[in-house]
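Q: Sequence in, structure out?
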Amino acid sequence: MTNKKMLTVSVIIPCRNEKNYIEHFIDSLIQQDYPSNSLEILIVDGVSDDGTIEILDNIKSKRKNIIVLNNKKKFVSPGLNLAIQKASGEIIVRMDVHTDYQSDYISQCVTALLTSGADNVGGPARTRSKTYIQNAVSIAYHSPFSVGGAKFHDVNFEGFVDTVTYGCWYTKTIKAMGLFDEELIRNQDDELNLRMVRSGMKIWQTPKIKSWYYPRASISALFKQYMQYGYWKVRVIQKHRIPASIRHLIPGSFVAFIMLLTVLSPFSKIAFLFLATLLGLYMVANFSASFITCFKPKYWKFLVIMPLIFTAYHFGYGFGFLQGLIDFILLRKGGRSSFSKITRSGTDK
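A: Exactly. Output:
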């Protein structure tokens, strides 16, 4: 940062049961180049029971600018809101424990907020991985075939978008928006950004803001993660009456059509032919996208598993979306009372 007057920044971080990651994350915060005397760090613990809180207590005793808050509700949204309400900085930067950050992450966020004219700024969703499957999930994560061409998955895109990873706002702006929706277990970032865009605000993405997210390390975990995304997307759409993008409707519609044709196929040759054709076309598209995605010497080894990865993205989101339609639209269930068997408290990554 080169500004003569350094704006004060409050970094907000939700966490729960992060014993294995919290110290590494704190180290990355300490290495940030933003002046520590202009930086306030608010870590909101969601009633951890694995030793995380003891580690945090030890850390905060050594660093005056680290504040640990107790989030009795455990979930991310109320934790973020608690941190925002306690924040004293002029700017708020959200961060996540399961992510690596470049040393100028906070500085770049502040610079982008000051120069872009946007109301929320962030960087693209970069990934890092350690295992074979996690590598494959990471590669698929940046493919338009898995995520429908969402701009925040494009690590080179700079410009106005409909949502960004994490986020950086003027404190007065996010407070004026009414904070995060505490009913939402997932998709709370997207829902806030949707409200901002529809109220005339702007969201800016720049690749200068660099962070690296660690994706799921198993196909079953990826499937469950995207079930949750699809599920809570229904609640967001229900609240706002219209989807933010048509891509949010495609997986659910596709899975619903397959299920309907599967039920009708024993009684109708036409339904069976439609089902066979639809599945055949999907397999062709899937294998083609897998081949294109892995068309690099260092990616060839992932070709054998890539179709399964793409299937987990699509069918996980699709099944979750249909479950959301049943719970929220047909059964009229409330937010946290539903879908608890696959929803994990704590961070949403």
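DSSP finds twelve helices and eleven strands in the chain.
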